[in-house]
Amino acid sequence: MASETPPVAPRRCTKCRVQEATLDSRSQAVCGDCFAKHVSTKCIKQIATLGKETRSPLGPSTGTGPPPTARRGYLLGLSLGVSSTVLVDLLNDNVDFQLSRGRAAPFDLVAVHVDASPLTTNTQQTTTTAAEETLESYRARYPRFTFLCIPLTSALTLPTIDWSTLPALDKTQPADVQLQSLFAALPSTTARADMQRILTRHVLIAAARAHDCSTLLLGHSTTALAELTLAEAAKGRGFALPWQINDGAYAVVDYPPSSPSPSPSTSTTPTTILIHHPLRDLLRKELATYASHLTTPPLTDLIPPTADLSNAPVVSHKDLTIEEVMLRYFADVEENYPSVVANVARTTGKLVRIGAEARCGVCSMPLDEQGDERWRGELGDPVLREGVAGRLCYGCERSTRG
Ligand SMILES: [Zn+2]
Ligand SMILES: [Zn+2]
Q1: What pairs with residue 274 in β-bridges?
Q2: What residues are paired with 89 via a beta bridge?
Q3: Which has the least CB within 10 A, 66, 83, 205, 361?
Q4: Do 293 and 23 contact (CB within 8 A), yes or no?
Q5: Gap between the Cα atoms of 36 and 299, Å rounded
Q6: Ligand found nearest the CA of 358
Q7: Which residues surround the ion ligand 1 when the cut-off is CB under 5 Å?
Q8: Which family does this protein fall into (predicted)?
Q9: pLDDT per residue over 147-192, tens digit each?
Q10: How do 215-217 and 271-276 pair as beta strands?
Q11: What is the mean pLDDT of the chain?
């Protein structure tokens, strides 16, 4: 049968067998519709799982009084990159679909971009940042969702960080100057990238609490989770990986001001929020295909043209962060061995969270009581600052003290 096929005939999609195959999906030739369906199905499966976990805490109506309010508030961390933008688009489609079936919107979404521009520019509240302007186009395209821009400087006042473990800030200075001094004191490019990621996470968690959202959604792809896994292990935070990579409940601990390192049980009751990664089963390149080919207009119109790190020329290997090294590495692996990428993330997914009480004052991850000692033993003692009372995990100790 195939022998009759002229060499120029279009390939049929291996899934629907109707349309022409124009794309490659994990070594199968597929059409655009089937590719888009693959992406959306993987995400919606995760969102449905989350929906079951976030049922109204009030339970079913008792029959008297008003029905329980089943508002589900989700807060989405919007980096303005491909993955988180695709996540916004897929969630919007999901709401459209539910409304078209005559159902209520399944959740309210607040998307928050944590603006790191105070790190590099002096933002004296007079100019609109580039990020703010970009968010305007997101608001126009997804009017039912709320889009907020929060400067990274807001991390400086958060109670979820044990400030006694970090170099003292000069509170008389403007916030962006304080933030820049904090970063300037860090020992390496990797340490600065690490701190930025940790502070961004704190700001997102604070925003989720402020907006009464039970859940924080992060747009990490399979590839991003694999990168995070290896980067965090390389930095000595392997113990905390199940808390970082897996989906689930996360207890937020507040430190009372000027009282270093309380045991969590004596501080205010921790709030629990859920942290989920709905794109965990999709490769980064699949999300890139979705963003550039499968929506009208393409999502790439929204995404600001920032440098693609995986293709940027290496100026100096010394200045590459561990994350950038991983990004380059996995861009290769993803192209040729996608199942390896999936395996790294899936294997970490099987790790169990060992009960741990003590938390790191900076990244909030559980402390590995014996393991941190072991890391220290193999990699040498960090220089301890005088009078530091709070406790840090091995990774944060390296990042803040060198
Ligand atoms: Zn098809
Ligand atoms: Zn830490």
Answers
A1: 215, 249
A2: none
A3: 66
A4: yes
A5: 13
A6: 2
A7: 13, 15-16, 19, 31, 34
A8: Belongs to the CTU2/NCS2 family.
A9: 999 999 999 999 999 998 898 899 999 999 999 999 999 999 889 9
A10: parallel
A11: 83
Q: What's the pLDDT at 121? A: 78
* CA 353 – ligand 1 centroid, Å: 40
Ligand nearest to the CA of 372: 2
Token look-up 């990020």 returns 131
* Residues in contact with 290: Cβ distance below 8 Å, sequence separation at least 6, in sequence order: 35, 36, 39, 86, 299
Rounded Cα gap, residues 173 and 401, in angstroms = 23
Angle at 341 between CA 28 and CA 54, to 5 degrees: 95
Residue spans of the domains in the chain: they are 45-54+70-401
Cα 359 to ligand 2 centroid, rounded to whole Å: 8
Taking the centre of ligand 2 as the mean of its atom positions, its distance from the CA of residue 123, in whole angstroms, is 29
Q: Which of 123, 103, 107 is nearest to 115 (CA)?
A: 123
pLDDT exceeds 50 at position 208: yes
Q: Please say whether the beta carbons of 119 and 196 come within 8 A.
A: yes
Burial class (CB in 10 A: 0-12, 13-18, 19+), 158: middle
Residue 114 dihedral angles phi and psi, to the nearest 5°? -90, 115
Question: pLDDT grade, residue 387 (50/70/90)?
Answer: very low
Instruction: Tell me which residue of 244, 270, 265, 273 sits closest to 358, measured CA to CA.
Output: 265
Chain segment 286-320, per-residue pLDDT in tens: 999 999 999 999 999 999 876 454 444 555 566 67
CA distances from 217 to 80, 91, 268, 371 (A): 14, 11, 25, 29
Which of 35, 8, 2 is closest to 19 using CA atoms? 35
Pick the CATH number of 45-54+70-401 from 3.40.605.10, 1.10.760.10, 3.40.50.1820, 3.40.50.620: 3.40.50.620
Q: Which residue, among 91, 125, 129, 94, has the nearest Cα to 110 in the 3D structure?
A: 91
Q: Pick the more confident residue, 323 or 123.
A: 323
Hunting for tokens 């991983």 — which residue is that? 326
DSSP alpha helices (H): ranges in 142-283?
175-184, 189-210, 222-234, 241-245
